[in-house]
Design brief:
The complex is a heterotrimer of chains A (696), B (150) and C (123). With 696 residues, chain A is an alpha+beta fold. In chain A, 63% of the residues lie in helices and 11% in strands. Chain A folds into four domains: 212 residues, f41 fragment of flagellin, N-terminal domain, CATH 1.20.1330; 116 residues, PAS domain (Beta-Lactamase, 2-Layer Sandwich); 143 residues, Four Helix Bundle (Hemerythrin (Met), subunit A) (Up-down Bundle); 191 residues, 2-Layer Sandwich (Heat Shock Protein 90). Chain C has one domain: Rossmann fold (3-Layer(aba) Sandwich), CATH 3.40.50. In chain C, 42% of the residues lie in helices and 24% in strands. Chain C has a five-stranded parallel β-sheet with strand order 2-1-3-4-5, with helices on both faces. In chain C, helix 2 packs parallel to helix 3. Chain C is globular and about 30 Å long. The chains are: A alpha+beta (696), B alpha+beta (150), C alpha/beta (123). Chains A and B meet through helix 10, helix 13 and strand 11 of A and helix 1, strand 3, strand 4 and strand 7 of B.
Chain lengths: 696, 150, 123
C-alpha cells in the first residue's frame, strides 16, 4: 500500500532515506568521538595533575624537614603529603588499570585504561619508580614520633631528590601521549565529518541529476502526451469536451466544437450557455437534470441511457439569414472516474443529420406509399377518364375557393357572404366526389363542411375565424395532389404499355402535343410525360390558334430547357421521367388561364446573363448588375435563346418573342414563375371578353 | 396545433398594430399561395422556425402602409432605413411572442429584414404558404406563414 | 434470493415481468397494480427490489417511488415505463429510483437491467 502510494517516487524516497541515514551516522560518529575526546580531555587534565602532584610531594617532604621544630606546620605538611600521595597513587592506578579516581572537582571519575604504547611505557616506568617512592613516603607517613621521623625522612628525601625529576618527566610524557591520542581522534572526527559531507554532496548531486533527468523525461512525456491530445482534439470529427460537477466545460475541447455550435470559446462556459441557442429551453433543462443523475454514484449509468434527452436532438445553428438548416446531433455522456468517484463527464457530440434525415425520408416515403396505396385502392376501380375529369374539376374548384378566400372582405356581412359561397363550392365538390365514388375525398369535404357549419353559427365573423377551415382546405389540396401524381404515374404506365387513352374530349390538338413531346424528348435523350387537362372549353378560332402556338412553344421549351436528362434527374432525387402539366381553365372572373408547368430545373438566370453578355448589346457592367427581375424579360427578347446549340427543337430563339406578340395582340398577359431546380410555370391569362364574345 | 401556431403569429402582429394610435386593424380570411416564388410587398421582416414545424414566417407590407404606420408612431422621417426598422420591429414582436409561447418546443431565429422582392430567399420545402391579410386604414399588409407541417 | 415486487397497472405487463425475472436470483414476493397497493404490500413483504410503472391510477409512480424510498433508502427501484416523456423518467430517478427501462422491452433487456440494478447485492 505504502509502496504503491510512493509509486514512481520510490527512488527519490530511497535517495532521501539514504541521505538521512548518512547524516545520522555522521552525527552518531561525531557524538561518540566527541564524547571520547571529552573523556580524553579529563584524562589529560588528570595527567597534568599528576605532574603537579609529584612536585607537591617533594615540596611537602622538604617542608616536613624544614619545620622539624614547628610541630604544627610539620603536621600540616604531613597531611598534605598524605593526601597528595593517595591521590597520585589512585590516579596512577586509574591510568594503568582503567579504574576510578577523584576529579579536580572532587567527584569520582573512571578513566579509560591507557593503551597507547607511549603512555603505557611512561606509566610502567613511573610505576616502577613509584613502588619504592611510595614505600619511602608511606614510611614517612607512618611515623609516630619525631625521632622516628628524623630516622626515616633523610632516606625519603634522598629518594625523592634522585627520582623526582624522572617522575615529573614520565608524567609529562603521559600527558603528551594522552594529548596525542586526543588530537588523533579529533583528526579522525574531522575526517569523518569531511567524508560525511562529501558523501552527502555526492548523494545530493546524484539526486539532482537523476531526478532532474527523470523530471525532464516525464515533462517530455507529458508534453508529447499533451501534443497528442491536442492533435486528437484538433482532428477528431466529433465534439469532445469535459463537464465538471457544476456543469462547466473544461479547458480542452475538440476543434470541431466551434463549427458545430457556432462559438469560438468554450472553456469556462456552462453547458447551458452552449446549448441555449442550439436546443429548446426544455431540453436544456432536462439535459442538466440528466447529467446530475450521472454524478450520483448509486445509479448504474447503463441503466439510464434511455433517459438521455440529447441522444438524438434536432438543433438549430443560426446561420447568416433566417433560413433554417435541419440538423441533428447526438450527445453521448460518459463518466470519468478518479479514485472511484465520478470526477467529470466526457461529452461526445456527433452530427447525425445524414442518418436521421435518411431515416426520416424512409419513414416519410413509407407513409407516403401507404397513403398512396390507400388512394390507389380507391381510384383503381374508377374509370381513368372520370378520374381525370374529377381531378381537373377539383383543382378548378379549389382555385375558386382560394380566390373567394383571397377576395378582400372586412365586414361581418361580406365575410358571411364569403363563407356561404365557399360552402356552396365545397358542397358541390362533395357531391361530385360522392357521385364518382371517392369516399376519401368525400369524407375530407365533409369535415370541411362541418367546420364551415360551425363558423356559420357564430354571430360575428372575423378573418382569422377562417383559419381552421383553410388548414383543412390545404390538406384536401394535398390529398388531391397525391392522387393526381398517382393517376399521372398510372397514365404514364399505361401509355408505356401503349394503351391509348381512348376516351378523349373534343380537343384534338392533344395528340399533336403528345407527339411533339415524344419526338423532341426522344431526340434530346429525355423522358417526359405530358398531362393535358381542361381543354374542353370551346374557343374562338383565333384564340384557339394562339393557344396552340403558346402550347407548342412552351412544351418545346419545357422539354428542351426545363426537364433534365434522366441521369441528372435521378442524381437530384427526382423521378426519372419529367412531367409537364398543361392546363386550360376558366377563372372566377371569366378570364382564361393557360398554364404550362414542368418539374424541370427551373429558369437558369446565370445562363440568361451569360447569353445576354454574349449578345454584346449591353455592357458587361450593366448585365452583371441585373437582378432576376431584369434578366427574366430577356427570354422574350427577339433573337434570344439559351440553348447550348441550335437544333430544330430550340435554340433559334424565334419562339418566345413571337408568342409574346401574339398574346399581346389578344390583350393577354404572360407570367413566368420558377423555382431553381424545382419547376417552371408559364401562364398566359387572356381577358374575359374573348370568351364572352363567343357566348354572345 | 398547427392552427394554434399560426394564430400566435397573427395575434402578435395584430397586437402590434393595436399599440398604434389607430387601433382599428382587421384580418382578412386566410388563403393559400403556391411557393413558386417569394411573394411579398415592398418591405418584409422574417423569422425562421424549427421544431415540430419548420420553415419561416414573415410580415410584409407596402411602403405606403409603413409610411402611415411610422407617422402614427410619431416618426416623421419616412426613410428606407426606418421602413426596414419598422418591419424588423414587427418581426421582433413575432419572434418574441413565438419564443414566449413556443420556446419550449420550437427554435426561433433572429429576424431579418428584406427590401423588395428577392430570389435569394431560401423557400422552405412546404408546398404552400398561408397568407393572412391585414387591413389597416385603407391599406393591406400580410402575415405569411410558410411552415412544413406534414 | 432477492425479494422483488412488481408495480404496474397492466396485468399483462405484471405477468410478463413475473415470467421473465425468473433468473434464480429474484423471488417475486408481491405485485401491485397501483401506488397505494404497492405501499401496503411493501410493508407486508419488505422487498429489496422493485419494478415500477409511472402512469398508474391512485398514487402514480413518481409519488410511489418517493414513498418507498422514504421507507427504505436502500431499496433498488427500476422504473419501467414508456418513453413518452424523458423528463418524467428523470424525475423518478431524482426521487430515488436507480434505473430506467423503456417499454416495450425484451426478456434480455429486462434481465440485464435487473442484474445491473442489483449489482453487488447478490449472495
Amino acid at each position: 500500500m505504502l509502496i504503491n502510494f510512493f509509486g514512481k517516487y520510490k527512488s527519490i524516497v530511497v535517495s532521501i532515506a539514504l541521505f538521512l541515514l548518512l547524516d545520522a551516522s555522521v552525527l552518531i560518529m561525531n557524538f561518540y568521538i566527541s564524547f571520547e575526546i571529552s573523556e580524553d580531555a579529563s584524562g589529560i587534565n588528570l595527567a597534568g595533575r599528576q605532574r603537579m602532584l609529584s612536585q607537591r610531594m617533594v615540596k611537602s617532604l622538604v617542608n616536613i624537614n624544614y619545620y622539624l621544630n614547628d610541630a604544627e606546620k610539620q603536621q600540616q605538611a604531613l597531611d598534605e603529603l598524605k593526601s597528595t600521595v593517595g591521590l597520585f597513587d589512585l590516579t596512577l592506578k586509574a591510568f594503568s588499570n582503567g579504574t576510578a579516581t577523584i576529579a579536580g572537582d572532587g567527584t569520582d571519575i573512571t578513566l579509560p585504561r591507557v593503551d597507547d604504547a607511549e603512555g603505557r611505557e611512561a606509566i610502567s616506568q613511573a610505576e616502577a619508580i613509584w613502588v619504592d617512592y611510595k614505600y619511602q613516603l608511606d614510611s614517612v607517613l607512618a611515623v609516630k614520633t619525631p625521632e622516628e621521623l628524623v630516622s626515616v625522612l633523610p632516606a625519603a628525601l634522598q629518594y625523592a631528590e634522585s627520582n623526582n625529576l624522572e617522575l615529573l618527566f614520565l608524567m609529562n610524557a603521559l600527558t603528551g601521549a594522552l594529548e596525542n591520542v586526543a588530537s588523533s581522534k579529533a583528526t579522525l572526527l574531522r575526517l569523518i565529518q569531511t567524508i560525511g559531507i562529501l558523501l552527502a554532496i555526492v548523494n545530493f548531486f546524484i539526486i539532482m541529476f537523476h531526478f532532474l533527468k527523470q523530471l525532464r523525461e516525464s515533462d517530455e512525456k507529458l508534453e508529447s502526451a499533451r501534443q497528442e491530445t491536442v492533435e486528437i482534439l484538433d482532428t477528431v470529427n466529433e465534439g469532445l469536451f469535459l463537464l465538471d460537477e457544476n456543469l462547466n466545460i473544461g479547458s480542452q475541447y475538440s476543434k470541431k466544437m466551434s463549427s458545430m455550435f457556432g462559438l469560438n470559446e468554450f472553456s469556462g462556459l456552462s453547458f447551458s450557455q452552449v446549448l441555449e441557442k442550439t436546443v429548446t429551453a426544455k431540453d436544456v433543462e432536462t439535459a442538466q437534470r440528466f447529467i446530475r443523475l450521472l454524478y450520483r454514484d448509486d445509479i448504474n449509468s447503463e441503466l439510464i441511457v434511455d433517459l438521455n434527452p440529447l441522444r438524438e436532438i434536432q438543433v438549430n445553428i443560426s446561420g447568416d439569414d433566417a433560413a433554417y438548416v435541419e440538423k441533428y446531433f447526438s450527445f453521448n455522456f460518459t463518466r470519468v472516474y478518479q479514485d472511484n468517484k465520478v470526477k467529470d463527464i466526457l461529452v461526445t457530440v456527433k452530427d447525425i443529420s445524414k442518418e436521421v434525415t435518411l431515416t426520416k425520408e424512409l419513414e416519410y416515403s413509407r407513409q407516403q406509399s401507404q397513403k398512396q396505396m390507400e388512394v390507389l385502392t380507391e381510384i383503381l376501380h374508377i374509370n381513368p377518364q372520370t378520374m381525370k375529369i374529377f381531378l381537373d374539376n377539383s383543382f378548378k374548384s379549389y382555385d375558386r375557393v382560394n380566390e373567394l378566400l383571397k377576395k378582400p372582405a372586412k365586414s361581418n356581412a361580406s365575410l358571411k357572404d364569403k363563407l356561404n359561397q365557399i360552402a356552396r363550392e365545397i358542397h358541390s365538390f362533395k357531391g361530385e366526389a360522392t357521385t364518382v365514388g371517392l369516399s376519401g375525398f368525400e369524407s375530407l369535404a365533409h369535415e370541411l363542411e362541418d367546420s364551415i357549419a360551425k363558423l356559420k353559427d357564430s354571430r360575428e365573423l372575423t378573418g382569422d375565424d377562417f383559419l381552421p377551415l383553410v388548414v383543412e382546405f390545404e390538406s384536401l389540396i394535398r390529398h388531391t395532389e397525391l392522387t393526381r401524381s398517382l393517376v399521372n404515374k398510372l397514365t404514364a404506365f399505361s401509355s408505356e404499355l401503349s394503351f391509348n387513352d381512348t376516351a378523349t374530349g373534343g380537343y384534338r390538338e392533344h395528340d399533336q402535343w403528345h407527339a411533339l413531346v415524344k419526338t423532341v424528348s426522344e431526340r434530346m435523350g429525355k423522358k417526359v410525360d405530358l398531362v393535358v387537362s381542361g381543354f374542353d372549353i370551346d374557343l374562338p378560332r383565333e384564340v384557339a390558334k394562339v393557344v396552340n402556338d403558346v402550347v407548342i412553344q412552351c412544351i418545346r421549351n419545357a422539354v428542351v430547357h426545363g426537364i433534365e436528362d434522366p441521369q441528372t434527374r435521378l442524381a437530384e432525387d427526382k423521378l426519372e421521367r419529367g412531367y409537364i402539366d398543361l392546363s386550360l381553365k376558366k377563372l372566377v372572373d371569366g378570364s382564361l388561364e393557360l398554364s404550362v408547368k414542368d418539374d424541370g430545373q427551373g429558369i437558369d438566370y446565370e445562363a440568361i446573363r451569360s447569353k445576354a453578355l454574349a449578345m454584346g448589346r449591353w455592357s458587361a457592367v450593366e448585365v452583371n448588375s441585373w437582378d432576376y427581375k431584369k434578366l427574366l424579360p430577356l427570354i422574350f427578347h427577339p433573337g434570344f435563346s439559351t440553348a447550348g446549340s441550335v437544333t430544330s427543337d430550340a435554340g433559334r430563339g424565334v419562339g418566345m418573342d413571337v408568342i409574346k406578340e401574339k398574346v399581346k395582340s389578344l390583350q393577354g398577359k404572360i407570367k413566368v414563375g420558377s423555382r431553381r431546380g424545382v419547376n417552371t410555370k408559364i401562364s398566359v391569362v387572356l381577358p374575359q371578353s374573348l370568351t364572352e364574345n363567343l357566348a354572345a | 396545433m398547427f392552427e394554434g401556431v399560426v394564430k400566435i403569429f397573427v395575434d402578435s402582429v395584430v397586437n402590434y398594430f393595436q399599440s398604434t394610435s389607430d387601433k382599428n386593424v382587421k384580418l382578412g380570411s386566410p388563403y393559400l399561395i403556391e411557393n413558386t416564388d417569394f411573394t411579398s410587398f415592398d418591405f418584409t421582416g422574417m423569422i425562421g422556425i424549427s421544431g415540430p414545424y419548420r420553415g419561416m414566417v414573415y410580415f410584409t407590407a407596402p411602403k405606403v402602409l409603413l409610411t402611415h404606420l411610422l407617422l402614427s408612431l410619431g416618426e416623421k422621417e419616412t426613410s428606407k432605413e426606418n421602413m426596414l426598422d419598422l418591419v424588423g420591429e414587427v418581426a421582433n414582436t413575432l419572434s418574441g411572442n413565438a419564443r414566449a409561447e413556443l420556446g419550449q418546443d420550437f427554435m426561433i431565429s433572429v429576424p431579418i429584414m428584406i427590401e423588395g422582392s428577392t430570389s435569394n430567399i431560401h423557400l422552405p420545402t412546404a408546398l404552400r404558404s398561408y397568407v393572412i391579410p391585414i387591413y389597416w386604414k385603407a391599406y393591406s399588409a400580410a402575415v405569411v406563414v410558410c411552415l412544413d407541417n406534414t | 434470493m432477492l425479494k422483488l415486487m412488481i408495480v404496474d397497472d397492466s396485468n399483462i405487463i405484471r405477468r410478463k415481468i413475473q415470467r421473465e425475472c425468473d433468473l434464480g436470483v429474484f423471488e417475486v414476493v408481491a405485485s401491485a397494480k397501483n401506488g397505494e397497493e404497492a405501499i401496503s404490500l411493501f410493508e407486508q413483504f419488505k422487498p429489496q427490489v422493485v419494478t415500477m410503472d409511472i402512469t398508474m391510477p391512485k398514487m402514480d409512480g413518481i409519488e410511489c417511488v418517493s414513498e418507498l424510498i422514504k421507507r427504505d433508502p436502500s431499496l433498488r427501484i427500476l422504473v419501467v415505463s414508456a418513453l413518452s416523456d424523458i423528463a418524467t423518467g428523470i424525475e423518478a430517478l431524482e426521487c430515488g429510483a436507480r434505473g430506467f427501462l423503456c417499454k416495450p422491452f425484451t426478456e434480455k433487456e429486462l434481465s440485464d437491467a435487473l442484474l445491473k440494478l442489483t449489482e453487488g447485492q447478490h449472495v
